[in-house]
Amino acid sequence: MAEAIAVRVRFFARLRELAGTDSGALHVPPSSNVEDVYEALRRQYAALPPVESVRAALNQEFVEWGAEVSAGDEVAFIPPVSGGR
Amino acid sequence: MAEAIAVRVRFFARLRELAGTDSGALHVPPSSNVEDVYEALRRQYAALPPVESVRAALNQEFVEWGAEVSAGDEVAFIPPVSGGR
Amino acid sequence: MRYDVTLDRIDARELEAVVLHPGAGAICTFSGIVRDNSRGLAVTHLDYEAYAEMAVPQMRKIGEEIKQRWPEARVAMAHRTGHLEIGEVSVVVSVSCPHRAEAFEACRWGIDRLKESVPIWKKEHAADGTYWIEGEEAKPV
Amino acid sequence: MRYDVTLDRIDARELEAVVLHPGAGAICTFSGIVRDNSRGLAVTHLDYEAYAEMAVPQMRKIGEEIKQRWPEARVAMAHRTGHLEIGEVSVVVSVSCPHRAEAFEACRWGIDRLKESVPIWKKEHAADGTYWIEGEEAKPV
Questions:
Q1: Is residue D16 left, alpha or beta, with left meaning phi > 0 and alpha meaning psi from -120 to 50?
Q2: How close C102 gets to chain D, by Cα (Å)?
Q3: Of B48, C83, D12, D92, which is most buried, counting CB atoms within 10 Å of its CB?
Q4: Which domain covers residue D63, as residue numbers?
Q5: Predicted ipTM of the assembly
Q6: Lowest mean pLDDT among B68-72, B79-83, C4-8
């Protein structure tokens, strides 16, 4: 099996408070996607909500959950933005 | 015949330049309307354009040409306002 | 509420301060600016002339119409007169509302009404002469 | 063009100066203000948090989308973060265009897009507690 790759993860707003941290490093298997990263984080930070109420950004761009990560990527987990009228 | 009534007239913008003055006093027969006032002024200031391209205001309110004037009224003759996009 | 016809430079922030209040979540401010071209011609400057005794009450009437349509709106309007250079502000309409949709709609409605019903005229000094602008028409002086 | 996420007070006139140019006849400026109430409850103050490294590029992307739809538009946007009191300006979008219809439309489009796609979050300190506002939902802290 190929070596694990390291990504940087970031949490914002309510997710930051639920995780208890604003960032971290994580090692995941090659060809992992953003959802794999999030599910690994949920095992580490049990208070994180299910994927349905979260959006993901990869290197500062919104992505679908299937987007594959590479070594050195920044993966951010983002609650719905405030919107408002 | 009843006595003539005095009204104050005012011209603005292009009408002011065509009349060569910004205001004046005019005596008109009782029960005259705004159009009568304007037609009397056109005899005095020949360069004034026909009534079709002018709006009238009586005491600072837009009025129809049939509006009757009273002594002491201010009657203003107004080109289309600048509008613009 | 504030309605001004003035020879002085208009400060949009002053109008915004008039409409600001603790229930306002949105302010939409429109500024009309002297452009360097009109009808395909270069413009050098403008002169605005107002029937001020009527223009201010007409603005107030527009403000009241806005309050009828958008009861939570607060409104301020100012129009400058006299000589204006390219880039100078000729007119400002500022509207506050609790939410942004109404702030945009009420402000847009206010400037549209102002342009059609407030007795203020524009004399355009263009490359090929001087014109009074009357609605869609430009009439040479 | 200018896109800021800042802890400092936003000066809408500075953004307007950025979009002003000799071909601009109309500037529409939207300001979002901290209101004293939300969801029927009194609000005492707000905190805004941004993913700044992403928020600024997202704003720039919105500016580019505006330029595609309204090629003559010029755009500036700023969002404040940190602690905001009632009446303070949280966000400003300013757009200039030759004519007013496009200025209103482009500005409205800009703030709508900003509210849905720029990663900035609002924590509302209300009479009955503190909430993260997520879209239409308010989630207690």
A1: alpha
A2: 11
A3: D92
A4: 2-140
A5: 0.93
A6: B79-83
